[in-house]
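Researcher: Last one for today. Full complex below.
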Amino acid sequence: MPQNTQAMLQTHPNPGSVFDQGALAACIDACFECAQVCTSCADACLSEQGHLMHLVHCIRLNFDCADVCGATGRVLSRLTQPDQNVLRAQLQACLAACQACGNECEMHARDMNMQHCAVCAESCRRCEQACQQLLGSTSA
Amino acid sequence: MPQNTQAMLQTHPNPGSVFDQGALAACIDACFECAQVCTSCADACLSEQGHLMHLVHCIRLNFDCADVCGATGRVLSRLTQPDQNVLRAQLQACLAACQACGNECEMHARDMNMQHCAVCAESCRRCEQACQQLLGSTSA
Amino acid sequence: MPQNTQAMLQTHPNPGSVFDQGALAACIDACFECAQVCTSCADACLSEQGHLMHLVHCIRLNFDCADVCGATGRVLSRLTQPDQNVLRAQLQACLAACQACGNECEMHARDMNMQHCAVCAESCRRCEQACQQLLGSTSA
Amino acid sequence: MPQNTQAMLQTHPNPGSVFDQGALAACIDACFECAQVCTSCADACLSEQGHLMHLVHCIRLNFDCADVCGATGRVLSRLTQPDQNVLRAQLQACLAACQACGNECEMHARDMNMQHCAVCAESCRRCEQACQQLLGSTSA
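Model: Here's the assembly. Have a good evening.
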C-alpha cells in the first residue's frame, strides 16, 4: 500500500520542522503502524484460549502502546507552530510504551512461540528506534 | 515501510473473519493511512495563510474523517468474536466520512490548486473504496 | 467534577447546530463517559482470573464501544460547518456499539454478578438513549 | 451527568493501583474532560471569522492537548498489571500538553476576550494539576 505521509509533508505550505523531515516521516509511519499492530496483537492474545492467563500483562501493554502510539502519530503529523516541550515529552512517552511492549512481546515470541507477538515486537522496536532517532535529530 | 497488517492477520490463532481476509487487510491499512493523511491535511490547511477562510469546511471534514477512520481501523483490526451490526454500521460511517472529505479536498485540489488536498483526496477515495469492497465481501 | 461541555457550546461563536443543544450536550457527555467506562470494564474483565474465558466477547465489545464512542464524542463536539450524513452515520454506529456492549454487560451483571459490568451496562444504555434522542431531535 | 469513573475503580476485581485511588479518579475525569473541551475549543476558534489568523497556534495546541489527554485518560483507566515507566512518562507528556494549551488559551481569554478559551484554560489547568498530584501520590 502506498504511504502518503511523505507526500503530505512535502506539499505542506510551511514544511519546516523542528525535526529532520526524513526521520519525521519514518517516525509518523512507525507510530501509526505500531498502533495498528498492537491493537491486533491484543486481540490475537485474547483468542489464545490455552494461554490467555499468561498473556494478561501483554494485552495490557499492547493497549497502552496502541493508545500512546496513536496520539504520538497524530501530534507528529502536525507541523504548524509546534510546542517543543509537548513534542519531546510525547516522544519520550512513546519510547517508554514501545520499550515495555516490545520487551513483553519478545519474551512471548521466544518462550511461548507466539508468532503474532514476534511480529508485534518487530513493530515496537522499529517505533522505539524511530522515536529515539527523532529525539536526536534537528532540522537544518 | 513494511506493513505488518497482513502478517498479524495470518498469525492470529483464530484467523476466520466475517470478511474476506485480503479485503480486510486492505481496508485496515486504508483506514490508518487516511487517519494520518487527514490529520496532516487539516494542519496543512491551517498553515495556508492567504486561503484559511476558504478552508474551514475542509479542516472540519478532515478532523471528522481522521477520527472516524481511526476508530474504524481499530475495530476492523479485531477478529475475536465480532458483532456484525457494529462492524457494518462503523464501515457505513467511515464510507460517509471519506466521501464527504474526499469531495471537499478534490474541489480544493482542482479549484485552488491545493496539492495537499489532492493527496488527501486520493487517500479518502482509496479508503472509501476499501470500505465499499469490504461491505460487499464475505469470507469463504 | 464540573463538566464544561455545555459552557463550551454556549460560548461558541456560531452555536447553532443541526441538533437540539441540550440533547447534543447530553450525548457528547454520554459518549466520553461511555468511552472511559468501557475502557475500564475491558480492563476489569481482564483481571477476572477465574472467569476470563467467559469474558472474551465482553472485552471485545468493550473495546469496540470505547473506540466508537470516543470518535463519536469528538465528531459531535464540533459545530462548525458539519456534514449531516457523517453525523448521522456515526451516531448510528455509536447506537449499534452501545447496544451490543450494553446487552453483553447486562448479561454478565445478571448471570455472573459482575458489578463492573452492571456499571458499564448503565453507561452503555445512557449513551444508546442519548444517541437515539439526538437522531430524533432537530434544532429550532 | 453522573460519572461512573469512581464506581468502575471500586468494582474492579483488583483495585490496587500504583497511585492513590481518589487522585486517580480525579485525573481520569480531568483527562477525558480536557480532551472534550480542547476538541470543542479548536472548533470554536475555527469559527472565529475575524480572528482566525491569530488563533492558529491555539488550534494547534488544542489538538495536541486533546490527543494527549485522550490517550492518557485511557492508559490511566487500566489497573491491571501496569508498567510504571509508561504511566509516568505519559503523565509527564499530559502535563506538558495541558501547560502549553492552558497558557495559550489564558492569553486569548485575557487579551482577546475569548470566552471559550477561558473555559478551556480552566479545564487545562484542572488536568495539569490532577497530573501533578497523581505523579506525587503513592497508594497506601
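DSSP finds five helices and no strands in chain B. The mean pLDDT of chain B is 94.
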